[in-house]
Amino acid sequence: MEIMNNWNQFLTAQGARHLAAENAPDGTALATSVSPIADFGHSLTVPQLQEGFVAAITDQGLIGLTGDEAASFLHGQLTNDVEHLNQEQVRLAGYCTPKGRLLASFLMWRNATNIYLQLPRAIQPAIQKRLQMFVLRAKAKLHDASVDAANQVMLGLGGKQADAVLSAWFPALPAAPFSKVEHALGTLLRVADAFGSARYEWLTSAATARDVWPQLAEKLAKGGNDCWRLSEIHAGIPQITAATQEQFVPQMVNFELLGGVNFKKGCYPGQEIVARSQYLGKLKRRTTLVSIADASVVAGGELFAVSDPEQPCGMVVNAAPNGVGGFDALVEMKLGAIEEGSSAAGAVRYGSAQGAAVHFLPMPYVLDALDL
């Protein structure tokens, strides 16, 4: 944790503002002594992200697994295929309760010795402990990879200028979303595109991060966790936080559309319910992108249709300041409410039927006709 504190001190000297836990958009305190970096004086706007940005990501934890049976163990726990995950791939994966509700969502990749699961730092200890309970006699060991010196720092980059800037250090960038390259300066993950451009996570040592930060910040708009979360939201990528654990089956947050569920793999906790939801079409909910002119928006906050004001029609999955006084968010809602809100301004509101209007934005991918 000392290295991470030194990195945070460096960022503070660069003008970073720390986010008080009680003000976190995901409504949770971090289970760490390191307060997260919110921004560098102001929230970045979508046009700034489109042009090019670098984000200091300090609210994400990393679970590492080693051992001969690490892949087969995880394969039996998660919604996605782990056994066939190779060292060039990056995947999304979910961890469900026996009732099929998501306890966590992961960004997952591997190298020659480790499988890595990235998730919010606030829920990492409990999730890691729960996974450890099921290892039993499997030849697999879990550890907190957030404290590994080589993976200590996460930088997020995206927008039109990101490729050119990164090429100063990486002779070859990952060719497609959800792929990666290994380099002497760290691991470069290409995640889901946003704003028509590639986005990357660069995992490196604190020493390397301090060396490259001035050059990155000179050419790109600089931000913190708020900036990175806003880019994730506009990429349509949900992340389960403490505020939304056990609220959604994977399809409610579009996880199967994003390649986060493999329906051909073997059993895992909740698999029967997830499969039934897919093939019997019993759900009628999806997640979509919205903007809300209200500074109080948090993950877990409820949405209401004006036409049916007595009961909520949806819930905020993730939210981030949009730089113009409001929040952009991914919201899970009834399909009927999505249709109603998309066609009539002010038909859906935040907090109550009298709350701030919810403005629907185009999604970066098609919500297919599963009628979930």
Sum up the structure in keywords.
372 residues, alpha+beta, 19 strands, globular
Short description:
With 372 residues, the chain is α+β, with helices and mostly antiparallel strands. The protein contains 9 helices and 19 strands. The strands form 4 sheets. The protein has a 6-stranded mixed sheet, sandwiched between helices. A 6-stranded antiparallel barrel has the order 14-17-16-15-18-19.
Structure description:
The chain is of the alpha+beta class and 372 residues long. The chain contains nine helices and 19 strands. The chain has a six-stranded mixed beta sheet with strand order 10-11-12-9-3-13, sandwiched between helices. It has a six-stranded antiparallel barrel with strand order 14-17-16-15-18-19. β18 and β19 (356-360) form a beta hairpin. α1 (2-13) packs parallel to α6.
Q: Could you spell the SSE succession in H and E letters?
A: HEEHEEHEEEHEEHEEEHEHHEEEEHEE
Largest sheet: 6 strands, mixed
Task: Quote the average pLDDT.
Answer: 92
Q: Tell me, briefly, the overall form.
A: globular
Please, how many helices? 9
Q: How big is the Rg?
A: 20 Å
Low-confidence stretches: 27-33
- Provide the structure class: alpha+beta
Quaternary:
single chain
* Fraction in beta strands: 25-35%
Could you tell me how far the N terminus lies from the C terminus, measured between alpha carbons in angstroms? 43 Å
- Total strands: 19
Strands of the largest sheet, in order across it?
A: 10-11-12-9-3-13
Q: State the share of residues found in helices, binned by percent.
A: 10-25%
